[in-house]
Design a protein that fits this description.
Blueprint (H helix, E strand, L loop, with lengths): L1 H12 L4 H5 L11 H14 L5 H7 L13 H31 L2 H22 L10 H18 E2 L4 H6 L4 E2 L3 E6 L5 H14 L3 E6 L4 H13 L3 H6 L5 H8 L10 E5 L9 H10 L3 E7 L12 H18 L3 E7 L2 H7 L23 H5 L2 E8 L2 E8 L8 E7 L4 E4 L7
Parallel strand pairs: 3-7, 3-8, 4-5, 4-6, 6-7
Antiparallel strand pairs: 1-2, 8-9, 9-10, 10-11
Helix pairs in contact: 1-5, 5-6, 9-10
Protein backbone atom coordinates (compact mmCIF):
# COMPACT_ATOMS: atom_id res chain seq x y z
CA UNK A 1 0.00 0.00 0.00
CA UNK A 2 1.48 3.33 -1.11
CA UNK A 3 0.44 5.34 1.97
CA UNK A 4 2.03 2.84 4.34
CA UNK A 5 5.23 2.88 2.28
CA UNK A 6 5.30 6.67 2.19
CA UNK A 7 5.03 6.97 5.96
CA UNK A 8 7.68 4.35 6.67
CA UNK A 9 9.99 5.83 4.00
CA UNK A 10 9.74 9.25 5.64
CA UNK A 11 10.43 7.66 9.04
CA UNK A 12 13.62 6.12 7.62
CA UNK A 13 14.76 9.25 5.78
CA UNK A 14 14.31 11.51 8.82
CA UNK A 15 15.37 8.95 11.44
CA UNK A 16 12.19 9.70 13.34
CA UNK A 17 10.36 6.56 14.43
CA UNK A 18 9.04 8.22 17.60
CA UNK A 19 6.73 10.40 15.53
CA UNK A 20 4.56 7.31 14.99
CA UNK A 21 4.04 7.13 18.75
CA UNK A 22 3.18 10.81 18.85
CA UNK A 23 0.31 10.12 16.45
CA UNK A 24 -0.62 6.83 18.14
CA UNK A 25 0.34 4.69 15.13
CA UNK A 26 0.87 0.99 15.91
CA UNK A 27 0.97 -2.43 14.26
CA UNK A 28 -2.79 -2.63 13.85
CA UNK A 29 -2.76 0.40 11.53
CA UNK A 30 -0.69 -1.45 8.90
CA UNK A 31 -1.81 -4.05 6.43
CA UNK A 32 0.76 -5.02 3.80
CA UNK A 33 3.67 -3.23 5.52
CA UNK A 34 3.03 -4.50 9.05
CA UNK A 35 6.22 -6.68 9.08
CA UNK A 36 8.26 -3.67 7.94
CA UNK A 37 6.87 -1.53 10.76
CA UNK A 38 7.62 -4.23 13.32
CA UNK A 39 11.19 -4.62 12.03
CA UNK A 40 11.86 -0.89 12.25
CA UNK A 41 10.35 -0.79 15.74
CA UNK A 42 12.58 -3.58 17.04
CA UNK A 43 15.65 -2.10 15.31
CA UNK A 44 15.10 1.29 16.99
CA UNK A 45 14.54 -0.42 20.32
CA UNK A 46 17.85 -2.27 20.06
CA UNK A 47 20.11 0.28 18.33
CA UNK A 48 18.54 3.63 19.18
CA UNK A 49 18.08 4.77 15.58
CA UNK A 50 16.27 3.73 12.43
CA UNK A 51 17.94 1.34 9.98
CA UNK A 52 19.28 2.46 6.63
CA UNK A 53 16.56 2.32 3.97
CA UNK A 54 18.72 -0.08 1.91
CA UNK A 55 18.68 -2.55 4.80
CA UNK A 56 14.89 -2.51 4.84
CA UNK A 57 14.55 -2.75 1.05
CA UNK A 58 16.94 -5.72 0.99
CA UNK A 59 15.01 -7.54 3.71
CA UNK A 60 11.45 -6.95 2.45
CA UNK A 61 10.60 -7.44 -1.23
CA UNK A 62 7.14 -5.94 -0.67
CA UNK A 63 8.47 -2.65 0.70
CA UNK A 64 8.19 0.04 -1.99
CA UNK A 65 10.63 2.68 -0.72
CA UNK A 66 9.52 6.25 -1.57
CA UNK A 67 12.38 8.79 -1.42
CA UNK A 68 11.83 12.45 -0.46
CA UNK A 69 8.22 12.23 0.69
CA UNK A 70 7.08 15.85 1.00
CA UNK A 71 3.82 15.32 2.88
CA UNK A 72 3.96 16.03 6.61
CA UNK A 73 3.92 13.33 9.27
CA UNK A 74 0.61 14.74 10.54
CA UNK A 75 -1.03 14.30 7.14
CA UNK A 76 0.39 10.81 6.55
CA UNK A 77 -0.57 9.54 10.02
CA UNK A 78 -4.09 10.94 9.91
CA UNK A 79 -4.59 9.57 6.41
CA UNK A 80 -3.45 6.16 7.57
CA UNK A 81 -5.87 6.24 10.51
CA UNK A 82 -8.67 7.18 8.11
CA UNK A 83 -7.76 4.28 5.84
CA UNK A 84 -7.84 1.89 8.79
CA UNK A 85 -11.37 3.04 9.61
CA UNK A 86 -12.45 2.48 6.02
CA UNK A 87 -10.87 -0.98 6.04
CA UNK A 88 -12.65 -1.89 9.29
CA UNK A 89 -15.96 -0.84 7.80
CA UNK A 90 -15.34 -2.91 4.68
CA UNK A 91 -14.44 -6.00 6.70
CA UNK A 92 -17.53 -5.53 8.82
CA UNK A 93 -19.84 -5.38 5.82
CA UNK A 94 -18.15 -8.08 3.75
CA UNK A 95 -17.57 -10.77 6.35
CA UNK A 96 -18.98 -10.28 9.82
CA UNK A 97 -22.29 -8.83 8.69
CA UNK A 98 -22.76 -11.63 6.20
CA UNK A 99 -22.02 -14.33 8.81
CA UNK A 100 -24.21 -12.77 11.51
CA UNK A 101 -27.08 -12.14 9.15
CA UNK A 102 -27.61 -15.88 8.85
CA UNK A 103 -27.07 -16.58 12.56
CA UNK A 104 -29.02 -13.82 14.30
CA UNK A 105 -32.65 -12.85 14.52
CA UNK A 106 -33.82 -9.59 12.97
CA UNK A 107 -33.75 -7.40 16.10
CA UNK A 108 -30.53 -8.96 17.37
CA UNK A 109 -28.79 -8.39 14.03
CA UNK A 110 -29.92 -4.75 13.78
CA UNK A 111 -28.71 -4.02 17.32
CA UNK A 112 -25.38 -5.73 16.67
CA UNK A 113 -24.92 -3.78 13.44
CA UNK A 114 -25.76 -0.47 15.13
CA UNK A 115 -23.24 -1.10 17.93
CA UNK A 116 -20.48 -2.06 15.50
CA UNK A 117 -21.05 0.99 13.30
CA UNK A 118 -21.12 3.25 16.38
CA UNK A 119 -17.78 1.84 17.54
CA UNK A 120 -16.21 2.48 14.13
CA UNK A 121 -17.70 5.98 14.08
CA UNK A 122 -16.14 6.80 17.44
CA UNK A 123 -12.73 5.67 16.24
CA UNK A 124 -13.12 7.67 13.03
CA UNK A 125 -14.08 10.85 14.87
CA UNK A 126 -11.30 10.52 17.42
CA UNK A 127 -8.82 9.97 14.59
CA UNK A 128 -9.50 13.42 13.21
CA UNK A 129 -7.34 14.80 15.99
CA UNK A 130 -4.70 12.48 17.35
CA UNK A 131 -4.00 14.47 20.48
CA UNK A 132 -0.49 14.91 21.84
CA UNK A 133 1.52 12.04 23.29
CA UNK A 134 3.60 13.85 25.90
CA UNK A 135 5.42 10.62 26.70
CA UNK A 136 7.32 10.94 23.43
CA UNK A 137 7.35 14.62 22.40
CA UNK A 138 10.22 16.00 24.46
CA UNK A 139 11.90 17.58 21.43
CA UNK A 140 8.66 19.24 20.38
CA UNK A 141 8.22 20.66 23.87
CA UNK A 142 11.72 22.12 23.74
CA UNK A 143 10.61 23.99 20.62
CA UNK A 144 7.47 25.18 22.44
CA UNK A 145 9.58 26.62 25.25
CA UNK A 146 11.92 28.38 22.83
CA UNK A 147 8.90 29.86 21.04
CA UNK A 148 7.49 31.02 24.36
CA UNK A 149 10.76 32.85 25.11
CA UNK A 150 10.95 34.43 21.67
CA UNK A 151 7.27 35.21 21.14
CA UNK A 152 5.91 35.91 24.62
CA UNK A 153 4.95 39.47 23.67
CA UNK A 154 2.83 38.04 20.84
CA UNK A 155 1.07 35.45 23.02
CA UNK A 156 -0.33 37.81 25.65
CA UNK A 157 -2.50 40.86 25.05
CA UNK A 158 -1.85 43.52 27.70
CA UNK A 159 -4.80 44.93 29.60
CA UNK A 160 -5.35 48.70 29.91
CA UNK A 161 -4.16 48.55 33.52
CA UNK A 162 -0.60 47.79 34.58
CA UNK A 163 -1.48 46.02 37.83
CA UNK A 164 -4.10 43.81 36.18
CA UNK A 165 -1.67 42.85 33.42
CA UNK A 166 0.86 41.84 36.05
CA UNK A 167 -1.64 39.89 38.13
CA UNK A 168 -2.66 37.92 35.04
CA UNK A 169 0.92 36.98 34.24
CA UNK A 170 1.26 39.26 31.21
CA UNK A 171 -2.34 39.89 30.21
CA UNK A 172 -4.90 37.91 28.26
CA UNK A 173 -3.39 34.81 26.69
CA UNK A 174 -4.30 33.92 23.10
CA UNK A 175 -6.74 31.03 23.04
CA UNK A 176 -8.31 31.91 26.38
CA UNK A 177 -11.93 32.58 27.27
CA UNK A 178 -12.25 35.74 29.41
CA UNK A 179 -15.48 36.62 31.19
CA UNK A 180 -16.31 40.19 32.23
CA UNK A 181 -19.41 40.27 34.41
CA UNK A 182 -21.09 43.24 36.07
CA UNK A 183 -24.34 44.69 37.27
CA UNK A 184 -26.55 46.31 34.65
CA UNK A 185 -25.67 49.87 33.55
CA UNK A 186 -22.41 50.13 35.47
CA UNK A 187 -20.10 50.66 32.47
CA UNK A 188 -18.95 47.14 31.60
CA UNK A 189 -19.25 47.94 27.87
CA UNK A 190 -16.85 50.84 28.35
CA UNK A 191 -14.36 48.53 30.06
CA UNK A 192 -14.70 46.01 27.21
CA UNK A 193 -14.18 48.75 24.64
CA UNK A 194 -11.06 49.97 26.40
CA UNK A 195 -9.69 46.42 26.47
CA UNK A 196 -10.25 46.25 22.71
CA UNK A 197 -8.71 49.68 22.11
CA UNK A 198 -5.62 48.73 24.14
CA UNK A 199 -5.24 45.45 22.25
CA UNK A 200 -5.42 47.26 18.91
CA UNK A 201 -2.88 49.89 19.98
CA UNK A 202 -0.52 46.99 20.73
CA UNK A 203 -1.07 45.78 17.13
CA UNK A 204 -3.44 42.90 17.85
CA UNK A 205 -6.36 42.63 15.44
CA UNK A 206 -9.77 42.98 17.11
CA UNK A 207 -13.24 41.70 16.17
CA UNK A 208 -15.80 43.53 18.30
CA UNK A 209 -19.46 42.44 18.40
CA UNK A 210 -21.80 44.98 19.95
CA UNK A 211 -25.37 43.90 19.12
CA UNK A 212 -26.91 46.55 21.38
CA UNK A 213 -25.30 49.63 19.82
CA UNK A 214 -25.21 51.17 16.36
CA UNK A 215 -22.01 51.28 14.35
CA UNK A 216 -21.59 55.00 15.00
CA UNK A 217 -22.20 54.67 18.73
CA UNK A 218 -19.57 51.93 19.14
CA UNK A 219 -17.09 53.79 16.94
CA UNK A 220 -17.56 56.99 18.95
CA UNK A 221 -16.80 55.04 22.12
CA UNK A 222 -13.55 53.86 20.58
CA UNK A 223 -12.63 57.44 19.62
CA UNK A 224 -13.47 58.69 23.10
CA UNK A 225 -11.23 56.09 24.72
CA UNK A 226 -8.47 56.36 22.12
CA UNK A 227 -8.37 60.11 21.59
CA UNK A 228 -10.31 61.40 24.62
CA UNK A 229 -12.87 63.22 22.53
CA UNK A 230 -16.02 64.11 24.42
CA UNK A 231 -18.52 61.37 23.63
CA UNK A 232 -21.62 63.58 23.85
CA UNK A 233 -20.07 66.25 21.63
CA UNK A 234 -18.97 63.59 19.13
CA UNK A 235 -22.52 62.30 18.77
CA UNK A 236 -23.84 65.83 18.37
CA UNK A 237 -21.12 67.01 15.98
CA UNK A 238 -20.19 69.83 18.36
CA UNK A 239 -16.57 69.16 19.31
CA UNK A 240 -14.67 72.22 20.50
CA UNK A 241 -11.40 70.68 19.24
CA UNK A 242 -12.86 69.77 15.87
CA UNK A 243 -9.71 70.42 13.81
CA UNK A 244 -7.67 68.21 16.11
CA UNK A 245 -10.26 65.45 15.77
CA UNK A 246 -10.26 65.61 11.96
CA UNK A 247 -6.47 65.44 11.95
CA UNK A 248 -6.67 62.47 14.33
CA UNK A 249 -8.88 60.64 11.82
CA UNK A 250 -6.19 60.98 9.15
CA UNK A 251 -4.24 58.32 11.04
CA UNK A 252 -6.90 55.70 10.28
CA UNK A 253 -5.95 54.55 6.81
CA UNK A 254 -4.64 51.61 4.82
CA UNK A 255 -1.27 51.77 6.59
CA UNK A 256 -2.79 50.14 9.68
CA UNK A 257 -2.20 46.41 9.30
CA UNK A 258 -4.00 45.27 12.44
CA UNK A 259 -7.78 45.49 11.88
CA UNK A 260 -10.41 46.67 14.34
CA UNK A 261 -13.66 45.25 12.97
CA UNK A 262 -16.92 46.36 14.57
CA UNK A 263 -20.15 44.46 14.02
CA UNK A 264 -23.29 46.00 15.47
CA UNK A 265 -27.05 45.74 15.01
CA UNK A 266 -26.84 46.84 11.36
CA UNK A 267 -24.49 43.95 10.55
CA UNK A 268 -26.42 41.28 12.44
CA UNK A 269 -30.02 41.33 11.14
CA UNK A 270 -30.55 37.72 12.26
CA UNK A 271 -28.59 38.05 15.46
CA UNK A 272 -25.13 36.97 16.57
CA UNK A 273 -24.37 33.26 16.41
CA UNK A 274 -21.32 31.08 16.94
CA UNK A 275 -21.39 30.26 13.23
CA UNK A 276 -21.09 33.99 12.43
CA UNK A 277 -18.11 34.35 14.75
CA UNK A 278 -16.32 31.34 13.30
CA UNK A 279 -16.94 32.51 9.73
CA UNK A 280 -15.58 35.97 10.57
CA UNK A 281 -12.44 34.46 12.09
CA UNK A 282 -11.90 32.33 9.01
CA UNK A 283 -12.09 35.45 6.85
CA UNK A 284 -9.88 37.51 9.18
CA UNK A 285 -6.91 35.38 10.30
CA UNK A 286 -5.10 38.48 11.60
CA UNK A 287 -7.68 38.95 14.38
CA UNK A 288 -6.30 38.03 17.81
CA UNK A 289 -9.03 39.32 20.12
CA UNK A 290 -12.79 38.77 19.95
CA UNK A 291 -15.14 40.87 22.09
CA UNK A 292 -18.75 39.77 22.53
CA UNK A 293 -20.51 42.60 24.31
CA UNK A 294 -23.63 40.86 25.47
CA UNK A 295 -23.66 37.09 25.88
CA UNK A 296 -27.40 37.23 26.51
CA UNK A 297 -27.88 39.06 23.18
CA UNK A 298 -26.54 36.14 21.17
CA UNK A 299 -28.83 33.71 19.37
CA UNK A 300 -28.63 30.55 21.44
CA UNK A 301 -30.22 28.06 19.10
CA UNK A 302 -33.69 26.62 18.90
CA UNK A 303 -35.66 24.90 21.61
CA UNK A 304 -37.50 25.85 24.75
CA UNK A 305 -34.71 25.36 27.27
CA UNK A 306 -32.78 28.66 27.20
CA UNK A 307 -30.35 27.59 29.90
CA UNK A 308 -29.27 24.48 27.99
CA UNK A 309 -28.96 26.49 24.78
CA UNK A 310 -26.82 29.13 26.50
CA UNK A 311 -24.63 26.41 27.96
CA UNK A 312 -24.10 24.96 24.49
CA UNK A 313 -23.19 28.43 23.16
CA UNK A 314 -20.62 28.96 25.91
CA UNK A 315 -19.02 25.56 25.27
CA UNK A 316 -18.85 26.32 21.55
CA UNK A 317 -17.24 29.71 22.18
CA UNK A 318 -14.55 28.09 24.29
CA UNK A 319 -13.76 25.73 21.42
CA UNK A 320 -13.71 28.55 18.86
CA UNK A 321 -11.33 30.71 20.91
CA UNK A 322 -8.95 27.79 21.31
CA UNK A 323 -9.23 26.63 17.70
CA UNK A 324 -8.40 30.05 16.24
CA UNK A 325 -6.02 31.08 19.02
CA UNK A 326 -7.78 34.32 19.90
CA UNK A 327 -8.39 35.87 23.28
CA UNK A 328 -12.17 35.90 23.62
CA UNK A 329 -13.77 38.48 25.92
CA UNK A 330 -17.39 37.67 26.76
CA UNK A 331 -19.40 40.39 28.52
CA UNK A 332 -22.32 39.29 30.65
CA UNK A 333 -24.57 40.75 33.32
CA UNK A 334 -25.48 39.41 36.73
CA UNK A 335 -28.94 38.35 37.78
CA UNK A 336 -31.23 41.26 38.69
CA UNK A 337 -31.37 40.43 42.38
CA UNK A 338 -27.59 40.25 42.86
CA UNK A 339 -27.08 43.99 43.20
CA UNK A 340 -29.98 44.68 45.55
CA UNK A 341 -29.31 41.65 47.75
CA UNK A 342 -25.64 42.48 48.23
CA UNK A 343 -25.91 46.27 48.23
CA UNK A 344 -24.16 48.13 51.06
CA UNK A 345 -24.04 51.78 52.05
CA UNK A 346 -21.33 53.79 53.76
CA UNK A 347 -21.90 56.02 56.76
CA UNK A 348 -23.07 58.83 54.47
CA UNK A 349 -25.69 56.64 52.85
CA UNK A 350 -23.80 56.32 49.55
CA UNK A 351 -23.77 52.98 47.76
CA UNK A 352 -20.49 51.09 48.30
CA UNK A 353 -18.75 49.96 45.12
CA UNK A 354 -18.53 46.18 45.31
CA UNK A 355 -17.95 43.91 42.29
CA UNK A 356 -20.21 40.87 42.11
CA UNK A 357 -19.12 37.26 42.51
CA UNK A 358 -19.12 34.70 39.72
CA UNK A 359 -21.88 32.94 41.64
CA UNK A 360 -24.11 35.92 40.81
CA UNK A 361 -24.38 34.65 37.23
CA UNK A 362 -27.55 35.16 35.19
CA UNK A 363 -29.42 32.36 33.35
CA UNK A 364 -26.53 29.88 33.19
CA UNK A 365 -23.34 29.15 35.10
CA UNK A 366 -21.58 27.96 31.91
CA UNK A 367 -19.60 31.17 31.16
CA UNK A 368 -18.26 31.18 34.72
CA UNK A 369 -17.24 27.53 34.39
CA UNK A 370 -15.82 27.80 30.88
CA UNK A 371 -13.72 30.94 31.25
CA UNK A 372 -10.01 30.78 32.03
CA UNK A 373 -10.13 34.30 33.47
CA UNK A 374 -13.17 35.65 35.30
CA UNK A 375 -13.37 39.40 36.02
CA UNK A 376 -16.23 41.24 37.70
CA UNK A 377 -16.76 45.00 37.67
CA UNK A 378 -18.70 47.65 39.54
CA UNK A 379 -18.78 51.44 39.30
CA UNK A 380 -20.58 54.32 40.96
CA UNK A 381 -20.05 58.07 40.56
CA UNK A 382 -16.71 57.64 38.79
CA UNK A 383 -15.34 55.11 41.28
CA UNK A 384 -14.75 51.73 39.68
CA UNK A 385 -13.41 48.40 40.80
CA UNK A 386 -12.43 45.16 39.01
CA UNK A 387 -12.17 41.92 40.95
CA UNK A 388 -10.23 38.89 39.73
CA UNK A 389 -12.60 36.02 40.47
CA UNK A 390 -10.89 33.33 38.42
CA UNK A 391 -7.38 33.08 36.95
CA UNK A 392 -4.53 30.70 36.27
CA UNK A 393 -2.17 32.92 38.22
CA UNK A 394 -2.32 33.09 42.07
CA UNK A 395 -4.16 36.41 41.88
CA UNK A 396 -7.76 35.48 42.63
CA UNK A 397 -9.22 38.03 45.02
CA UNK A 398 -7.09 40.97 43.86
CA UNK A 399 -9.06 44.21 43.53
CA UNK A 400 -8.17 46.90 41.01
CA UNK A 401 -9.46 50.36 41.84
CA UNK A 402 -10.25 52.67 38.90
CA UNK A 403 -11.10 56.27 38.25
CA UNK A 404 -13.80 56.22 35.57
CA UNK A 405 -14.67 59.24 33.43
CA UNK A 406 -16.49 57.50 30.62
CA UNK A 407 -17.65 60.56 28.68
CA UNK A 408 -14.10 61.80 28.19
CA UNK A 409 -12.54 58.35 27.83
CA UNK A 410 -10.40 58.29 30.95
CA UNK A 411 -10.54 54.95 32.76
CA UNK A 412 -7.37 54.75 34.77
CA UNK A 413 -5.92 52.75 37.59
CA UNK A 414 -6.28 54.73 40.79
CA UNK A 415 -3.15 55.75 42.63
CA UNK A 416 -2.69 55.62 46.39
CA UNK A 417 -3.54 59.31 46.81
CA UNK A 418 -6.96 58.98 45.17
CA UNK A 419 -9.92 59.11 47.49
CA UNK A 420 -12.42 56.26 47.64
Amino acid sequence: MLLESQLLSKVLDENNFLVTRQFNINESDFGQQKPVYEFIKEYVKEYGETPDYRTVVGKFDTFDYQPEVRDTFAYLCKSLKSTVTKRSTYELLQKEAKDNFSKMGGTEFVNWMANEVLAIQKVANSSQTTGTNIATNGEERKDWYKENKEQRSYSFIPTPYESLTGWLGGGFELGDYILLMAFTNRGKSWIASQIGQTAWRHEFGVLHYSPELSKKQQTYRFETLDGHYNNVDLRRGQLENEEEYLEYLDGFNENNEAPYIIKTMEDLPEGLTCDTIEADLQMNPNVKMVIIDGFNLMVHGKGQNLRNNMTATSRRLRQIFGKYMVAGLVVHHTKASAETDGSKEDEDGARVVQPPKLTDYSETIAPAQDCATGLTFDQMDGVGMISIEKAREPSVGELLKLNCQFNTGYIREAVATDQF
